[in-house]
Design brief:
The chain is an all-alpha fold. It is 74% helix and 1% strand. A hairpin with a 2-residue loop joins strand 1 and strand 2.
């Protein structure tokens, strides 16, 4: 059974890499084979899916779409541009702004919000927007691991390790991933300052964007506040279902509040229908399938076997295992989607820690640092990069991989190296 499970898993993973447009269907088909073959009992299928994670992602997507439609991100970007003296600082400010937004909003959505501002500035100054859009895309990816709702990989970690919103800031009395990511952001911004040192043309903003509806902004802020309150509130007396799904219920609940508000305000459901269509059901189906596949390989003993292999290969050396996890994750995330990779590796990371008899936090955080920050290395390493290059293509700029990597490689190496060292110093 283990041999069959390993072969099935390898075939699944290769198919996920080779056929990215069909990833959700591949994951669901593989999940079905794990059940039909008897590796995973059919009674355990529903429980294998982390519905709290699925609901968090879906609810956040809906609230973020309402936030974007309100034009609030454009107004914030206009305010920032008003205060910048030249192109260099405008690009740095937009990259930082994209990072801050991306800590709470999906990375691709962040690029779609901020990139048009950079395009407008570059068009006015008659300069190429290529470097600016690349900087915005990679900065968005960087901050994805900063908070529980910043990226799908963070939500996966939260679900697997039982981490709440505040745990990303302070975890067991020590600095959490948020501060590790901010250290990486500061170091990588120095890299951007060097890369943009010659761009000194003066810049000023056009008329400010007008925001007429502040409710979506309040909903996004409310999501963060309620997730924080859920982190600190006592759980005694609550049903097990609510305790296990409270974050997901908050995110979906506020999305529904936003939908109801919009229907009442507009006296029709047009915008709500559009947002429901925009929700990334493909990713949700992919994750549901992957949860079942991972439950199947865990049931067959594959996760434990992979964990033992890592431990044997490193000679029980914790530093060597940690280093392998971080830098192998960087390498793989540069070429493959980090969602299936992180979903697969989280139980392996836990297994490695169990084999060594150590707190798994070091391995978990190392995995996130490598997989989330490492996706910046290549144009295809992250969805935000692909979205940024798609925007440039529409503007008539075809960006070669070498041109992209001239900015992304030093940026990524600076961010990952600082995160790698900081996680080790704090959690080893």
């Amino acid at each position: 059974m283990m041999t069959f499970a390993i072969v099935l898993f390898l075939v699944t993973y290769i198919a996920l890499m080779v056929l990215p447009k069909y990833r959700a269907y591949i994951a669901l088909a593989s999940a079905a084979v794990f059940v039909i073959s008897g590796i995973l009992p059919i009674g355990e299928v529903f429980g294998a899916v982390d519905w709290n994670v699925i609901m968090m992602i879906m609810g956040t997507m809906g609230v973020v779409s309402l936030f974007i439609n309100s034009k609030m991100p454009s107004l914030l970007a206009d305010i920032i541009i008003d205060r910048m003296p030249n192109v260099k600082w405008a690009v740095i400010a937009l990259a930082l702004f994209a990072g801050i937004i991306s800590a709470f909003v999906d990375n691709v959505a962040t690029v779609l919000m901020v990139a048009p501002v950079a395009i407008t500035i570059c068009r006015k100054l008659k300069i190429s927007p290529v470097k600016s859009i690349i900087a915005i895309a990679i900065s968005s990816n960087l901050q994805g691991a900063a908070t529980l709702v910043g990226d799908t990989t963070s939500i996966l970690l939260g679900g697997h390790a039982g981490m709440n919103f505040l745990d990303f800031f302070v975890y067991r009395g020590k600095p959490g991933l948020f501060w590790v990511v901010q250290a990486g952001a500061l170091v990588s911004m120095v890299v951007l300052l060097v890369l943009f040192r010659k761009d000194k043309a003066l810049v000023n903003a056009d008329e400010r964007t007008v925001v007429k509806d502040y409710v979506p902004s309040a909903l996004l802020l409310g999501t963060v506040i309620l997730l924080i309150l859920a982190s600190i509130m006592p759980k005694e007396g609550m049903s097990a279902f609510i305790v296990d799904h409270i974050n997901g219920l908050i995110c979906v609940g506020l999305m529904l509040v936003g939908f109801i508000y919009n229907i009442i305000k507009e006296k029709n459901a047009r915008i709500v229908v559009e947002i429901i269509k925009e929700i990334d059901y493909f990713t949700l189906l992919l994750l549901a399938g992957l949860f079942i596949v991972i439950a199947g390989i865990t049931e067959a003993g594959v996760v434990e076997a992979i964990s033992e292999l890592f431990v044997r290969a490193s000679g029980n050396n914790v530093f060597l295992i940690y280093t392998l996890i971080v830098w192998v994750s960087v390498l793989l995330s540069a070429f493959i989607d980090n969602i299936p990779y992180v979903a697969t590796m989280l139980p392996v990371a836990g297994g490695i820690a169990a084999q060594l008899g150590i707190d798994p936090t070091l391995i978990y955080f190392g995995l996130l640092v490598g997989a989330t920050l490492g996706g910046n290395m290549t144009p295809i390493g992250a969805s935000a990069n692909i979205a940024g290059l798609g925007i440039l293509r529409k503007e008539g700029y075809e960006v070669k991989p070498a041109q992209f990597m001239k900015i992304s490689i030093p940026f990524t190496l600076a961010a990952v190296t600082s995160g790698y060292l900081l996680v080790w110093l704090i959690w080893a």
